[in-house]
Each structure stands twice: as C-alpha cells, then as structure tokens.
Design brief:
Distance between the termini: 38 Å
GO cellular component, one term: cytoplasm
Number of strands: 13
Protein name: Heme chaperone HemW
Structural class: alpha/beta
Number of helices: 15
Strand order of the largest sheet: 1-2-3-4-5-7-6
Oligomer: single chain
CATH class of the largest domain: Alpha Beta
Low-confidence stretches: none
Subcellular location: Cytoplasm
Order of helices and strands: HHEHEHEHHEHEHHEEHEEHEHEHHEEH
Pfam family, one: HemN_C
GO biological process, one term: porphyrin-containing compound biosynthetic process
Mean pLDDT: 92
CATH topology of the largest domain: Transcription Regulator spoIIAA
Strand content: 15-25%
Largest sheet: 7 strands, mixed
Number of domains: 2
Length: 355
C-alpha cells in the first residue's frame, strides 16, 4: 500500500503542471503548502514509511519552504517512544483524537484509549511538539454542562494551541447506534449540544483562542493551514483509497476498495471518478464553507464570480436571517452572528441554489 501511494503521488504530478500552465500567475497550483496524513489511522505507518512518502512529495512537486506536515493519531498510538521518534521526523504538527477525558464517554464511543492514556499522551507530546491540535466531542448523552466544562478545562491545562470540537453524531451500524436502539442510552439532544457549543465558544475565547471556523479554535498563528485551505476554496490532491481531490472546477475521488486501488495503480491507472462542478455547485460550496469561517461570504466575490442574479438571490434569501439577527452584513461580508453560529449549516442550506 505504501508503494502504491508513492506511485500515485508520481502519477498525479501532471495535474499540478497542467494547472500551472493554464494559470502561470497562480502559485498555489504548483506549490504544496501542507502535507496531511489523515483519514483512518495513519499513525500505523512507521516513521520510515512516513518519511519515504514525504520524500516522494518533495521529489515530484514544488514545496514551500516551511510546509505544515500533520499526522493524525490516537492517544493509544502515541507511546513515549513514538512521540520522541516523530519529533525527530519531518512531522511538525500532531492532531490527536482525544474526544473526552471521561472514561464513560470513551467506553460509550468505543475508543481504544482511556483517560489516563489521553492525559499521559498530551503531557509528553507537548514537551516535543509546539503545534498540537486535539479533538473533543460535545453533546454526549448524559454529559452535564459541568462535565463538559471540565473536559475543556482539562484540555486547556496542557496548553495546546488548537482545538477541534464536534457535536456527537450517531452513524448507522455502530455500537453507539445499537445502544440507542435498545434504549440503553439516550439519543443526542440538539438543545444539549447547543448549550455545550456556547460553553465551548465562551471558554476558549476567554483563553485566547480565535473561533476561526465553526468547529475549530486556534491561538494566533496556529490555525490549521491544511483545513483553512479547504475552507478558502484552495486546490488540493488527496492520495490513497477513498481520498478526495479538488482543482477549482471539479472534484474527484479514489475508489474505497483497497484491492481495486492497488490493482489500478499497478497498471499505472488512477482509480478515481470525476465530477465537473456546475456554477450552482461552486456557489453552494462557497456559501457552505464561507459561512462556517471568520472570513464569511464576500458579496463582492459572489457578484464577480457568479453574477448579479446570484447576488440578488443571496441577499433575498438572507433577509429573514438578518432580520432575526442570525446573519449580519458588515463591509459587504455576510457572516453568522454569535446567536446564529450554532445554526450555520442549516442557514447555509436555505441559501443554496438547487441545480
């Protein structure tokens, strides 16, 4: 699999070259700004395998001077030896799936680590890495506001500069869904999630974090460059099974089946499908990503990129949300208010144009 991923890195370098030829003034097409090992559990790779893949990127692409290179990992993967080893590698940012510091929550979510491992992992990781992000889950059934506050305060004690936090969602065919179906635990409640969200925002902002995206909080100079690129509509290439890519006008995604992926790569074929995005698709995506961030949706960009009809539609659809103080327009930028942040995704869907 590692060799196949390396081969795909080689096969797809022409995509950036083609983009560079089409727009020589747009450096983002051909300079790699971030490298992100994510999706699944990439920490199962050895440090040597990670370095091998990073070297392949450098060999076949132009890379900025100090790229952000992130590895996603779970606390049970990050032994003291592994953390020290990674600190000596090209990895300069860790994204750690803590989720909760309470044993009952971790057991319910079927996590492999426990609270002691989570805290021990952070204690050591913060000694070797400056740039660390952790994930926390809110809206967990049975979690009181006081417990959620304690979760946040525990995270803050370690001095991490970035926190990603998401409401608990229940996926089909999971242990959590089975427990809910059997009435062993309650289903997540929107009002609980909203209360936890408000506590999260208030606590982190008081502690110097900037709420730069709906689910992401970072200290100054510690925003995720990788994820920010996605929210700002930059182009990216996803390598490996199930990986998605975006070039500004189309999306592509690799086959999810490992065997089919390996077979195609061995035959020098890219195992992916592509979808050309319509004007409405690109407008909807900008609305969805823009409203989730502190950068908002530029009305000037809407008019310049999509035309006056789209701008008129957006303004008309936004009127009721502006009136209800869920959205606001400042300096020709449309943004959610503090009151509207938790409802951002639902609001965005009401501003979409149907194809």
């Amino acid at each position: 699999m590692v060799l196949a991923i390396a081969k795909e890195i080689q096969l797809r370098k022409s995509e950036l070259l083609d983009c560079a030829r089409s727009d020589k003034n747009d450096a983002e097409f051909w300079e790699v700004e971030t490298i992100y090992f994510g999706g699944g559990t990439p920490s199962v790779l050895t440090t040597e395998e990670i370095e091998f893949l990073i070297a392949e990127v450098y060999q076949h692409y132009s890379v900025v001077e100090n790229p952000e290179i992130t590895l996603e990992a779970n606390p049970d993967d990050l032994t003291s030896e592994r953390i020290v080893e990674l600190s000596k590698s090209s990895i300069n940012r860790l994204s750690i799936g803590i989720q909760s510091f309470f044993e009952a929550d971790l057991a319910m979510m079927n996590r492999a680590h426990n609270s002691v491992e989570a805290q021990k992992c952070l204690e050591l990781a913060t000694q070797y890495f400056d740039n660390i992000s952790i994930d926390l889950i809110y809206g967990i059934p049975g979690m009181s506001n006081e417990q959620w506050q304690q979760n946040i305060e525990t995270a803050l004690r370690f001095g991490v500069p970035h926190i990603s936090s998401y409401a608990l969602t229940v996926e089909p065919k999971t242990a959590l869904n089975t427990l809910i179906q059997k009435d062993k635990i309650d289903a997540p409640k929107d009002e609980v999630a909203e209360a936890h969200f408000q506590i999260l925002v208030e606590t982190l902002e008081k502690n110097g974090f900037i709420h730069y995206e709906l689910s992401n909080f970072g200290k100054e100079n510690y925003f995720s460059k990788n994820n920010s690129a996605y929210w700002l509509g930059k182009k990216y290439i996803g390598i490996g099974p199930s990986a998605h890519s975006y070039d500004g006008i189309s999306r592509s995604w690799n086959v999810a089946n490992n065997a089919l992926y390996l077979k195609a790569i061995q035959q020098n074929q890219l195992p992916n499908e592509k979808e050309i995005l319509s004007t409405a698709d690109r407008y909807n995506e900008y609305i969805m990503t823009g409203l989730r961030t502190i950068w908002g949706v530029s009305l000037d960009r809407i008019e310049a990129e999509f035309g006056g009809n789209y701008l008129d539609y957006l303004i008309k659809q936004s009127e009721k949300f502006v009136k209800d103080e869920l959205l606001a327009i400042e300096n020709n930028i449309l943004k959610p208010t503090s009151k509207g942040k938790f409802l951002t995704d639902g609001i965005a869907s009401d501003l979409f144009i149907l194809n």
